[in-house]
Amino acid sequence: MKTKHVVVDGSNIATEGRATPSLAQLDSAVRALLDEYPYEHTTVVVDATFGHRIDAKERKAFEEAVLQGEVITPPAGAIGRGDAFVLQIADRAHADVFSNDSFQEFHGQYPWLFDEGRLVGGKPVPNVGWVFVLRALGSFSDVPTGAQMPFYLMRTLPFRLGFTRPREIGRYETELLSFIKSRKADVLAEIKSTGKLEGDIEKRLRDALTEFAKQFSTEDKK
Length: 222
Hints:
Layout: E1 5-9, H1 10-15, H2 23-36, E2 41-45, H3 50-53, H4 59-67, H5 83-93, E3 96-98, E4 119-125, E5 129-135, H6 149-156, H7 166-183, H8 185-194, H9 199-220
Helix pairs in contact: 7-8, 7-9
């Protein structure tokens, strides 16, 4: 817990361990979270289709929760899932996020996702109840080795080049992976075999990212 405000990724939590979302599960999770982490402010966000996917018996309670401001949905016509709305609120409020999602497509836009403690995860355990953990996206337990490691280093070291638009970030990551695979395959192979990113191998990967960044920047200006 790093802040006094938490934004709940309601659709994610309501679907944890289930095929379809449950309002009852979401409610029990939020109550248990606040028992363990005494946040002063809580914002629960679900995606626009949430009300259509929950059990029909829960819809009246859901509609009442929306009317009372206990649950928030993205504005009408919002593009994509509710993830962007969740993170935009958290960013504006400097709030923690309760979710089991890693929000990979937003790593470049919201670098605070890598701050220890800003993400809280949780799962319902039979005969125990909800169990919560503070998540750290920058930890090696959360980051696959091999092809994903360059992205880990790119996001945790200063190689973002100041890009903020998702399209730019997506193109950068796609072309970076192609560059690493075709020209630095030995680096990937060593990371995959050792499962480590330190010393000489980290330096070689840093150098590769710097080399690609210069190339990408030049091409982007053409």
